[in-house]
Amino acid sequence: MTDLGITLPGTGRRRLWRAAADRSANIVPVLTVAALVIAIWYLGAFILNSPQAIEQLNRQGIASPTTSQVLTEAFGQRRPVLPTPDQVLVEIVTSSTERPVGNVRNLLTHAIATAQSTLAGFVLGTILGMTLAIGMAALRPLERGVLPWIVASQTVPILAIAPMVVVVLGNLGFTGLLPKAVISMYLCFFPVAIGMTKGLRSADPLHMDLMHSYDASPLQVFLKLRLPTSLPYLFASLKVAIAAALVGAIVGELPTGGQAGLGTRLLAGSYYGQTTQIWAALIAASVLSALLVQAVALVERIAIGRSGGVR
Amino acid sequence: MTRSLVSRGLDLAGGGLLLAALLLPLTDTGRGMWVMDAGLPAGVMLLALIPFISAARRPQGSTARGPLVLVGALLGAVATIAALRTGAVAFGTAGPGFTLAGIAVMLAATRGITLVARLPEASAAARILPPAALGLTLLYAWEAGCIGFGVPPVLLPPPSAIGSAFVDGLPVLWADFIQTVWKGALRGYLIGCTAGILLGVAADRVAFLRRGLLPVANLMSAAPIVGIAPIMVMWFGFDWPSKAAVVVVTTLFPMLVNTLAGLSATTRQELDLMRSYGAGHLTTLIVARLPNALPFLFNGLKISATLALIAAIVAEFFGTPVVGMGFRISTEVARMNVDVVWATILVAALAGSGTYGLLSAIERRLTFWHPAMRGR
C-alpha cells in the first residue's frame, strides 16, 4: 500500500530510505497473514471437497478410504466446491497462455476488455466529477442546491440496474464499450466530486491572505492556490473511483452474454459450475484492481512532485 | 435600497417567458394561442405572473424574493402539468408554447434557488428549500419532457407511471423488500460490521496483526467482491443466506479499515491523561479511544450500508427464489415492464436514503462534540 498517511521528517533521499524501511517492516507480517489465508484456504478446500471426494472413492470401490487418499482426491477434483490455490494458479496460467490473446477462451482477453471499459468510464466520471466540483466552487450558491442531490444520486443502486441500462442502451443501438462505461462513470463521478469539492475548500487561510496581498484575481487564486491544494484530496478520491469503476464494468458485463469481459467469465463459470474458472476470474479482477490503484498512485507521485507539493 | 435593472429583470425573466409562452400554440397542431387549446391551465399560468412581479418590486434585501420566484415557478409547473393531465397535450405533441413554458419554469426555479441560497445559513428555508426545489424541478422536467416529447416508456417512463406502478405493486414490492433488505442485506450488514469492528479492535491490540492485516484489508476494500456472489450461491443455496454471506464479506473490510483509522485518532495528551489515572488498556479503549473513533466508525457504517444494499441486490442476479429486488429487476426488464423496475429502484433508493439518514441522525446524537458537527 502506498499511502498510510505517514509523513516522515527529513528530505529527499533520506526520506525515501526511511519510507522503504517502513514498507519493508510490513513485509514479514503481510507474508504471515498471506500464508495464514492460504493455509485456511487449503483447509477449507479439504473440508468442503471431502464429501464429494469420498463419494467418488466409494464409486471406485474403495469403501473406507484413508485420510491421505481423501486428501489427494479432494485436492484434485475436476469441479471442486472450493478449488485449491494451486488449481486456481494453474487455471490462470493455462487460460492466459494456452490460446493467443484475442481468443474468447483466453483470460487476458477478458481482462483487457474489462480494463478498457473501466478506464473509459473512469475518464468520463473524473471529467464529470471535476466539472461539478469546480462549478460548485465557482458558484457557491449552487452548491447548497446541488450537493444534496449528488449525495442522493448514489442511493440509486446503479449496479442493481446496470443490466437494465445495458439492455436498454443495447436496444437503442449502443453496444460494446459505451453502456459499461456509462455505469462506471456513474460510480466514479461521486467520490471525485466530493473529494475535489473538499480539496478546493481546503486552502490555508494564510495562503489566501498572501494571494490577496498580491492582488491576485479569483482565477489566479484558483489556478495557483486552490487547484494545487486540492490535488492530494483529488487523488485519494481517484483511487476509490477507479476501484468503483472496475466493479461497475464487471457488473455491466453480466447481461451481455457471450461478449468479452471478466463479468461474462464469472457468469459463464457460475452457469456451468466451473468453480476454478470463477476463482481465476475473481483473482484476475482483484489483481487488475490493485494494478489500477497503483497506476493512479504513480500518477499522483508525479503530479504532486511537479506541483511542488511535499510527499 | 435601489436595485439595478438587471437584478429586477432577472427576477421577472421567468414570468416574462411564461407570458410569451401563453401567446404561442400549446401543441404542434395547435390553433395559434395557448388559451384556445387549454383555458384553465392558461388561467393558472396568468396567476403565476403575480409572484414574479411582486418579487421584482421588492427591495434588494428582501428575504421574500427567492420564495416568491419559486412560487411563480411552481404555478407555471402546475399549469403545464395540468395541460398534460387534461389531455390538451397528448403524448408527444408538445408545441412551442409548451416547450417555452417548460424552459421558463426551469429558469425561474434556478433563479429562485440561487436567491434562497444567498439567505443566511441559519434559516431553515435556506437549508431545505434549495435541494427540495431542485428535486421538484428535476421531477418536473422528467415528467413534462417524457410525455410532451413522447419519450418511449421502455426507455424512460415518466415519474407518474413509476408512482402508479409503485402503488399498484406495493404488496409485491414489500415482499421483495423483506427478502432482500430485511433478510439478506441487514443480517449480513450486522454480522459484517460487528466482525469488522472486533477484528479492528483485535488488530489494534496486536501490532503484528495490524501490520499484516491493513495492507490486505486495503487491497480487499478495492477488490470487486461482488464477484464472489456465484460462489456463495453455490455454497449457501438460492435463498437469503447466500446474499447475507456476500454482504458480510463486502462490509467487513471497509469497517476494519475505518476502525483501525478511528482507534488511532486519540491524541497523545488524552492517552497520557488516561495513563496518569492508572487506566489499563481496556479502560483506555472504552473511555477514550472508542468514543474518539466514533466519527470514523460512522463513516464506515454509512459506506457499508450502501455497499450492503447493492451487494444483496447484485448477488440475486446469480440465483434467487422467485422473490427479491434483484429477481424483480432482472425478470421485469426481460418482460419490458420498465415502470416496475423503476418502482423497485425507488424502493432501493428510499431504503438507502432512509438508512443513511438514520445513521446520520444517530451520529449527530453521539458525536455532537466533534468539530465537523458543531454549528449545526
UniProtKB/TrEMBL annotation, chain A:
Residues 111-300 form the ABC transmembrane type-1 domain. It comes from the Bacteria. SUPFAM superfamilies: MetI-like. It is found in: Cell membrane. Pfam families: BPD_transp_1. Keywords: Cell membrane, Membrane, Transmembrane, Transmembrane helix, Transport. InterPro entries: MetI-like, MetI-like_sf. The chain crosses the membrane at residues 24-48, 119-139, 146-169, 233-252, 278-299. It is a multi-pass membrane protein. Belongs to the binding-protein-dependent transport system permease family. This is ABC transporter permease. It comes from Tistrella bauzanensis.
UniProtKB/TrEMBL annotation, chain B:
It comes from the Bacteria. Pfam families: BPD_transp_1. The chain crosses the membrane at residues 39-56, 68-91, 97-116, 128-151, 189-207, 219-238, 244-265, 277-298, 304-327, 339-359. Keywords: Cell membrane, Membrane, Transmembrane, Transmembrane helix, Transport. Belongs to the binding-protein-dependent transport system permease family. Its main location: membrane. Residues 178-363 form the ABC transmembrane type-1 domain. SUPFAM superfamilies: MetI-like (SSF161098). It is a multi-pass membrane protein. This is ABC transporter permease. It is found in: Cell membrane. Gene3D superfamilies: MetI-like.
